[in-house]
Amino acid sequence: MSGLDWGVVGAYFFVMLAIGLYATRRVDNVADFFTARGRIPWWLSGISHHMSGYSAIMFVTFAAVAYDYGVTVYFWWPLTIGIGVGIGAFLFAPRWNRLRAKHGVNSPLEYLAVRYNLPTQQVLAYSGAALKVVDIAAKWVAIAVLLQGFADIPLAWGITLTGVCTMIYMAFGGLWADVLTDFGQFIIQFAAGIAMLVAVMAHLDGLATLWTMWGDLPSGHSDPVAGPVTTTLILAFLLVKTFEYNGGMWNLAQRYMAAPSGSRAKKSALLSSALWLIWPLILFIPMIAAPLIVPGVENGEESYIKLAQELLPGGMIGLLLAGFFSHTMAMVASDSNVITAVITRDLAPVLVRRVRTFGERGQLLFARITTVAFVTLSMGFALFSDPDGFIMTVVVSIVAATMGPISIPLMLGLLPWFKLHGSLAAITSWAGGIAVWSILYWGVEDATQAMTVGLPLLTSLVLYVTIGFLRPVETTAGNALVDSLADDPQAEAQPTTPDAPTLPPLELR
Length: 509
What we know:
By secondary structure, the protein is mainly α. The protein is built from 22 helices and no strands. Belongs to the sodium:solute symporter (SSF) (TC 2.A.21) family.
């Protein structure tokens, strides 16, 4: 990397920190810190939702899939997410927002104590928080691998640099810092992605590359299903991602909660869905075309690095690397904020009675300390992991497979069709899904990725639905909660009555 490249990367980090410090002006209490009190415009919420959904893993592990097998990577990953988020725009996005607007909920799991009971909330919170530590550790490793490939920086330094910067701006600015940096990162990513696409087309056949390269690529690279990606795996990912990206991955529920209303949360979800269907394809085209420019790369995870080094001039590599940072920091920042919300709102008050008595300033200080502690823990996990194969194992075999059982009771608990499904259905579905994943992951040597990803969620879904219908549970508070999520507060639905009351905050303890 040239001095100009390092200047671009340094400027990026400076801007991110400056945005984080600026965002502190908007944060007065934990409601600002975790959900911005519903003051984030729907379009910004949609962009943030999109940016929070992927990281530098895309330019390492998914780049390897694109290099080795071609366009199937688009059908396997962003297409399933785009469709899933589009479905969730109608089912889940408005309901997440109404939890905040009508009940003062600041954590995606906060409502579970009323919807089911406190033990159910705690089980899902602890299992999901543990999973997020591993998930975020994989993101740190991914960006460190890229840094090592571009600038020969040791993995430990790459993890530390990215982690500390993210920790600082998140601890100061909370969700506002996260969303504002997401927008800045989206602009950087757009410029870097277009630059790489133009460079690839200029090197090959110009604009005609978009339709001529397919005949020159290795056999099967134009097939929607190729290599380890099967139709069954794509369908399994569609099922998993529909739950995961509509709130099962908790940080994305926050984006809906932070929009001004349920109807605008729906619009933000539709915007995110459109971005998922279009933008990743633009990013993937250079990865798919890479065998024509840098053939013979033995380790596909290095293909995008070699492609950039081959095509991009000084300064542009720095911009591209800043784009990699933007991916990772966007996802990790949003994950850190939501895990802090879960710990602050759902776990700590149960463990330590004194936390319940904190005033507004005390709650905010506790949230910031928790942010620093969680990011530090995930960095430590990344520093002591073996990077060889770690990313793919975490992203597919662990996170995608276990997020389903955690998200089933969380997501379906919002919907009116399942409002008589009680804690027995919730806990059993979670335990059954995790048990199936454990058997497949550790006990079945020839288990396919489709089985590992799809069967745990399918098991949880069947158990939740079946037990709920066989053993229905009717609770006044739970039923009222679900019914209240059908429409926006009266003040939003009828602007002529701005003083219309909303439901009181949930008593979650």
